[in-house]
Amino acid sequence: MDLAEIRNIIQTNRDKYINELIDLLKIPSVSADSQYKDSVFKAADYVRQKLEDAGVENTEICQTDGYPIVYGDKIQNPSWPTVLIYGHYDVQPADPLDLWDSPPFEPVIKNDKIYARGSADDKGQFYIHIKAFEILNQIGNIPCNMKFMIEGEEEVGSDNLEDFVKANRQKLAADVVLISDTSMLSNENPSITTGLKGLSYLQVEVTGANRDLHSGTFGGSVANPINTLCKMIASLKDENNHITIPGFYDKVIDLTNDERAAIARAPFDEEEFKKELGVNEVEGEKGYSTLERTGIRPTLDVNGMWGGYIGEGAKTVLPSKAYAKISMRLVPNQSSDEITKIFSDHFRKIAPKSVKVKVTPYHGGEPAVTSTQSVAYKAAEKAFETCWGKTPIPTRDGGSIPIVALFERELGVDSVLLGFGLNSDAIHSPNESFGIFNFLKGIETTVFFHHFLRSLTKK
Ligand code: BES
Ligand code: MN
Ligand code: MN
After folding, report:
1. How far apart are the CA of 154 and the centre of ligand 1, in A?
2. Which of 27, 181, 318, 342 stands 20 to 30 A from 389 (CA)?
3. Residues 370, 385: Cα–Cα separation, whole Å
4. Does 23 participate in catalysis according to the annotation?
5. Which fold has domain 198-252+298-363?
6. pLDDT confidence of 281, banded at 50, 70, 90?
């Protein structure tokens, strides 16, 4: 495979690739909000059409009880390695809208980045694979069997994916799953994610009196559920930011000194990290570095909290209810169901008699660690060396992609997390963006990944 030829094709088609991605970004496929239902289906149709245009065969829209899964493949030779490419065409809600510099579904290019909801997570990233396939098809050298599976419910917990995978083991059978839905350290220090966290997400409701009360007449005599909820949440961590839920750390495997040393070697600039986020100091579990906190230690965070009066002006009210949405990010060997259960038991136990507590679990997912010894990882490494001139650094990420553990468990297939995003892309935030350099370099790297996977696979 000729690097100059591939680079030339990408440069020649640059505007076409970008404009196709822009058309996809214009479709507001927000899976969490039913108001966007038609758009989510429309995005699935667009993806199927683009797969077909690129030369992928057997493209289809697979209906589920929720949003469809787009499938397509090109199988040429049973003795070649088979790559299953996974991505998601749904996006997070764009709120808060007033913090966007331009409308989230009217993509604009500024400072060599495409700004739009979903640009980096995950439309811009999975579109890389459709264009890489198109190039391989165009040069008449698709070195591997290829399968595409692009889903539309990732951002809401992929509820229908497990059934789909179980019902389609044969169709999805592959030697490796290839996913671009993570980020790299920086463009100067490309990296490959080798670990993702699991997730346990729940909502808690604390109820005091049976109705809202006058905060003067009743204040100080019955529980204020907001005050109580704050105290309960505050008690979940001690002064060292260690989580206090009994049993929470029981299954966590401590990293070896070698593993910790490897993390410490990663070129991470904490001053730059603080500056970029506008914080004077970092904060987290005592005894661990920032990269350890984000990559290998379990965490607990309130994602949203509400109750009482939040309208304009002042209303003197003692609320009847208070709510919070809480996420726990889990590390290898912790189980999402188990952690959800011990959290729920503990939270009910610490509630004072003066309130009632309800805990509602939402979606979860298991943590995953991917191998750095597999042929596919080596192929990814060589692709980076060829295209970026650097050996990628293996890193652990704090985000969750539950399908990685599911593919491993149900299909026995390991994943390679070939992410091309950057932490500054602001995924899930206002002004999400994806660098055009990263988009195009991702296409180039992916082309070479397939090439090296085939050549490194022993016949
Ligand atoms: N692409 C992200 C996950 C991610 C982001 C991994 C950055 C590594 C680095 C994915 O779309 C996502 O947002 N996942 C959710 C979990 C899901 C179950 C809703 C998450 O991590 O919050
Ligand atoms: Mn994603
Ligand atoms: Mn996401």
Report:
1. 8
2. 181
3. 20
4. no
5. Alpha-Beta Plaits (3.30.70)
6. very high
